[in-house]
Write a structure and sequence with these properties.
Layout: H1 4-8, E1 22-26, E2 29-35, E3 41-46, H2 54-67, E4 70-74, H3 92-103, H4 109-126, E5 132-137, E6 153-158, H5 163-175, E7 180-185, H6 202-210
Amino acid sequence: MSCEACRTIPPVQAKDYVTKGKYEQVAGLNTYVTGSPTATVGLIAVYDVFAMVSQTLQGADAVAAALDAVVLVPDFFQGESAQWSWIPPDTPEKEKALRDFITTGPASFERNTPVVLKVVEEAKGKFGSVSSWGAYGLCWGGKSDAEKLTIPHIVLASKDEPADVVTEYKKIIDSGSIGGHVETYTTMVHGWMSARADFEDEENIKEYTRG
């Protein structure tokens, strides 16, 4: 999910983490691949506007290990990302830079939707041992319309997400037959599992691991 906090809380610089995966080309994108090459479960991770930050790659490593899965993190923005200096967008210049990046630039949904579908198609052929595919998204990468979902869906919201939106989302998920889970992590800021994850904070580490 996205919220005002997405625009106002600066990301955190992760320290000293050594990634466990490697980079491969998938659908023409430089893609971080982690986990077992013979896994039967595959996941495609869609990052937030800060792209290939250490916290996101560390999360991919953790998910791969926990599920004995192969996890792919494609670089949809092809080397670009939102600049940390744009947050918060407290000047007209910063506001325009962030807005353009999301609406017409590398993070445009219109631009990336067909790319995601191409990644899925190629990943199915490239990782032949995988019989079950899924995906997870972080903020920009996690937007969805609850009423249009056709597969089980999990939402892990922070304290910064609008409570009424989360409640309505949960109501729709709970009333359907596809299954899912909606939970608010009441001590976590928006982005606690991606670019704003603070691994110097014990509570953040605990909730990151639980998530």
